[in-house]
Design brief:
Layout: H1 2-12, H2 15-44, H3 54-63, H4 68-73, H5 78-91, E1 99-103, H6 109-121, E2 126-131, H7 142-152, E3 159-163, H8 184-189, H9 197-203, E4 208-213, H10 219-229, E5 233-241, H11 249-259, E6 264-269, E7 274-278
Length: about 280
């Protein structure tokens, strides 16, 4: 009956009026959705969905289906993060707005720590992160989990994400042990992200108060990253290098080689991370 009525009305009502009616219905529906979204956004402004906690971040990723063992394996330990933030607070006035750079996000555990800590020091501090979002430790699309975790703790507004390679496109740290098998050269061809991000940031005039290096663990790549970063690191800026231990000999050897640089001084090491400070003079 309804179909017949609609057909009969269609024969009587001019096409232009029918079209206008449909457009108004669509516009009213769209307006209603936007109003509801605006109300929900207004209620959430300034509020965090959950209070940040390191262990809670690991548990949350587990609830989303990730293996907690692999998450912990690929993330900076809480003790090392605390060690780094203490050294930062002792070396810089963190109550002032600061800009940090993190290279290597994985699934966002360390990023959440830094974003939470920075926001408590100064609401206007920001963390920029660079990560190509490649397969790592059995996890596809780790960026999905990192951004979701950051959002879960209401920390997104302090974060600027760049999906890219700090330098040139390269293999992941565990590519040789990739359980997916197959030709690694064919797989890397299917991974797409911006390249030479550090050089682009330098061209844009970016400067950083501290940098956390936890991306590519190959010695030559890490050394090139440091060479590219130092001109962008402010005087007395802090350079944090993760995995400075025997488990990653190339990282440790590269770190030992840069400790001797005249423009850097080591201010801390705890068996996992090494922390360097840029001397007062410009590089």
């Amino acid at each position: 009956m309804n179909r017949r009525l609609k057909f009969a009305l269609g024969m009587i009502v001019p096409y232009s009026i029918a079209t206008l009616y449909r457009q108004r219905r669509i516009e009213n529906g769209r307006r209603e959705i936007l109003e509801k979204f605006s109300q929900a956004r207004a209620q959430s402004v300034g509020k965090r969905r959950a209070s940040y906690d390191y262990d809670a971040s690991i548990a949350q990723l587990g609830e989303w289906g990730l293996d907690p063992i692999q998450v912990v394996r690929g993330s900076m330990p809480f003790a090392s993060l605390q060690f780094c933030s203490t050294q930062l607070a002792n070396s810089l006035d963190m109550t002032q707005p600061r800009v940090g750079l993190q290279i290597g996000n994985f699934v966002g555990v360390a990023a959440c720590y830094w974003l939470d800590w920075l926001s408590q020091q100064n609401e206007n501090s920001r963390l920029i992160s660079i990560d190509p979002n490649i397969f790592h430790l059995g996890i596809e699309n780790p960026q999905h989990y990192a951004t979701r975790l950051i959002e879960q703790f209401g920390l997104s507004k302090y974060h600027v994400l760049i999906v890219g390679y700090s330098l040139y496109k390269n293999f992941g740290n565990d590519m040789a042990h990739d359980p997916r098998g197959g030709n690694p050269f064919a797989r890397i061809e299917n991974e797409a992200a911006s390249e030479n991000v550090l050089h682009s940031l330098r061209q844009l005039g970016m400067r950083f108060d501290f940098v956390i290096l936890d991306g590519n663990h190959h010695g030559d790549y890490l050394r090139e990253e440091i060479d590219a970063l130092l001109p962008m690191l402010n005087p007395q800026g802090i350079l944090i290098v993760d995995d400075v231990n025997d488990a990653w000999q190339e990282v440790r050897q590269t770190y030992e080689s840069i400790v001797a640089r005249a423009d850097l001084i080591e201010i801390g090491r705890n068996g996992r991370v090494g922390i360097l400070q840029k001397r007062d003079r410009e590089a």
